Amino acid sequence: MGKVEKDRKKLQNKLFRKRLSSLFKTEYKYSLRFEQSHVFDDGKAYINVDLTKCESPFSIYSYENRLNPEIYDYINQETEFLPVNIPVVVNFDDDGKYSDEVRTKIKKVVTRHYSLEYEDVRYELHKSQRFGLVTGLIGLVLLSLYIVLSIVIPNENTFKPFIEIVQILAWVSIWECVDRFALTGFDETMDVLNAGQLALIEVQFGKPKIKK
After folding, report:
1. How far is the C-alpha of 142 from the C-alpha of 121, rounded, in Å?
2. Would 46 disulfide with which of 21, 33, 98, 209, CB 3.0-4.6 Å?
3. Is the pLDDT of residue 159 over 80?
4. What is the pTM of this model?
5. What does the radius of gyration of the chain's CA atoms come to, in whole angstroms?
6. Contact, 88 vs 45, CB < 8 A?
7. So what's the pLDDT on residue 184?
8. Cα 92 to Cα 57: distance, rounded to the nearest angstrom
9. Environment class of residue 152 by beta-carbon count within 10 Å: exposed (0-12), middle (13-18) or buried (19+)?
10. Strand partners of residue 49
């Protein structure tokens, strides 16, 4: 590769990094503007859901016990970029087409759905933490065993490979514990917080609440 070609590639990489940096700043501004457009003076974020063009908000197979999954998909997408500490209000605009009985059923279905999701991800987090704690304790026991065996058994002993295996298993177990609490555990905790935000969701009916 000639010098001219190398310089051209360096310039391309520089421009690419500059564009990425600019994109990040732009995306941050968009996320901030997105939050500001949804959060009102009462500190709550309002998600407007249009039911006026919907023949029925319920899944056709559910005997009106579940909402159409597309409604949940939309709510999840709209709340994805909101901080978890902001209360969320879902405002269904049905233009008065549904009775109070149907509206009450919709509220119960939405509340039940997100409460079940919260319980599920919370259970998975606790299960992951318990597994991490067990593997951490096993790792400490194996590490202690390795240290004792290393002191007691001479280097030329035929059991030396076994001792090395104990050491490897100890560090693998300890790393699994660290991963569960510090790495994947962080993502799982965020999932719980996001699910908790939706589990506390408020449901109301009315005209779209739009910031001017």
Report:
1. 31
2. 209
3. no
4. 0.78
5. 27
6. yes
7. 83
8. 10
9. exposed
10. 92
